[in-house]
Amino acid sequence: MRIVTRENLDTEQWDALVSRFPETSFFSYSWYLDAVAENWCVLVNDDYSTGIALPYSKKLAVKILYTPIFGRYVTPYGIFSKSDRDLISAYFSVRELATSIELFKENILRVHQIIPVGHERKLSSQGKRTLSKATKKGLSVHVHEDYAKIIPAIKNEITGKFKGVNAKSLARLEQLFKSASKRNKIKVFEVTHNEESGGIVCLYDEHQVLYVKGACPENLKLNGGMYLALNQAIEFASDHGLLFDFGGSNVEGVKRFNHNLGGIDTQYFFHQKDEGPAMFKFARKLKKRIG
């Protein structure tokens, strides 16, 4: 196993590795990471049969292994030995990485919500009421591939409201949508009523539908617009025999929202370890104190 930098990566072989695993996620594809990660490399063997993507940022000349803002985790493909894990730790002295399966010893368990193929979905009473309300108010959903129609609502919803969301990260999100669109892997579920519109953007392939981001103007939101859009995306996944992935969030309100639509919890793992230089640790502590 060896670290291969992005510029030296055989992207065709890497993406083929990612696609071979039935439990794969979009988060490890080269085009996904090119869009959302500040930097990334991989740990991979010579024939690209085992590997893991390693997104990272750089601060004060220190490489920080991290999870990009529009990624949930990376997936280790194949079997990793202690020496493989040690190689990652040696290359990245600061690690803040989420993985789909357990890779490191020190982990925090987290959950995200999915609807597996064939799962009998159970809407909560809140979910049923909200969907009924949206229908009675005359909201409708249109399915297409034009993500640009949803971008204004997304920008208005999240700009300045969430940590890490700024002009640069929004540009990364648009680049992700553009890359997915080029590969015919994007579906938009647009909610409209009169002159207002919003909705959600999802990625999809032969295995899954992944909710990436979405938003509705306040009036549409209050009348169940987000519920209606997500419900339509879930039904699209079910009709095509695909898993539906809510994208994941550690915010309790978002979890409740997903549960209301029938989502069930599944675990993933977050590993955090700071073995960086003393000056780096001091600088990070100082930054936290002054905000």
Question: How are the strands of the largest sheet arranged?
Answer: 1-2-3-4-5-12-6-11-10-9-8-7
The biggest sheet, with number of strands, parallel, antiparallel or mixed sense and barrel status, is: 12 strands, mixed
Helix content: 25-40%
CATH class of the largest domain: Alpha Beta
Compute the number of helices. Answer: 10
Range of strand content: 25-35%
Runs in which pLDDT lies below 50 for 5 or more consecutive residues are none
Shape, per Cα inertia axes: globular
Rounded mean pLDDT score:
91
| First-to-last CA distance | 40 Å
Quickly give the CATH architecture of the largest domain: 3-Layer(aba) Sandwich
Number of separate structural domains: 2
Order of helices and strands: EHHEEEHEEHEHHEEEHHEHEH
| Helix-and-strand structural type | alpha+beta
The CATH superfamily of the largest domain is known as Gcn5-related N-acetyltransferase (GNAT)
List how many beta strands DSSP finds. Answer: 12
Here the CATH topology of the largest domain equals Aminopeptidase
Using only C-alpha atoms, the radius of gyration works out to: 20 Å
Your description of this structure?
The protein is an alpha+beta fold and 291 residues long. It folds into two domains: 2-111 and 268-290, Aminopeptidase (3-Layer(aba) Sandwich); 122-262, 3-Layer(aba) Sandwich (Aminopeptidase), CATH 3.40.630. Helices cover 36% and strands 28% of the residues. The protein contains ten helices and twelve strands. Strands 1-2-3-4-5-12-6-11-10-9-8-7 form a twelve-stranded mixed sheet. The longest helix has 16 residues, at 167-182. The protein is globular. The model has no long low-confidence stretch (mean pLDDT 91).
